[in-house]
Write a structure and sequence with these properties.
Elements: H1 7-20, H2 31-42, H3 46-58, H4 66-78, H5 82-93, H6 97-113
Helix pairs in contact: 2-3, 3-4, 3-5, 4-5, 4-6
Length: 137
């Protein structure tokens, strides 16, 4: 007699199949969105830099690649994103010396492509009065 397996027995297999499906996907589904994210990161957006690091680190819609992830995390941390500093340390801990060296090279390349905002113009202080200020007696 053929019985249908109770849902408790086949549910873990179904979940495993669903989780394994995206692992083989290395194709970017939204190239325009990724390009916009990269442009924002190159424009100095620390959150976009962090997002690129996450995409590289975990391989979501792009190959799992720790060196570029570390490079983007470092840039995002320097741009003021505290989450990026924590992610950079976590990723660095699991990398080989060769991967860290590659990340350092990528960091230099990415840093050269980032347009940093110009420093805010400071207005000069008004000239000191040329007439003596009367004092109260």
């Amino acid at each position: 007699m053929n019985k249908i397996l109770p849902w408790k027995r086949w549910l873990p297999l179904l979940l495993l199949a669903l989780l394994a499906a995206p692992v083989g996907a290395t194709q970017v589904e939204d190239p325009a969105g990724l390009e916009n994210l990269r442009k924002a990161a190159e424009g100095g957006d620390a959150d976009a830099m962090l997002e690129l690091g996450i995409l590289y680190e975990f391989g979501y819609q792009m190959p799992d690649n720790k060196p570029p992830a570390l490079a983007w995390y470092r840039l995002a941390a320097e741009a003021g994103n505290p989450k990026a500093a924590a992610r950079a340390e976590a990723v660095r801990g699991g990398m080989s010396p060769a991967e860290i060296e590659q990340a350092n090279r990528l960091y230099g390349e990415y840093a050269a492509s980032i347009r940093r905002p110009a420093p805010a113009a400071t207005t000069p202080a008004p000239d000191a009065p040329t007439e003596p200020v009367p004092t109260a007696k």
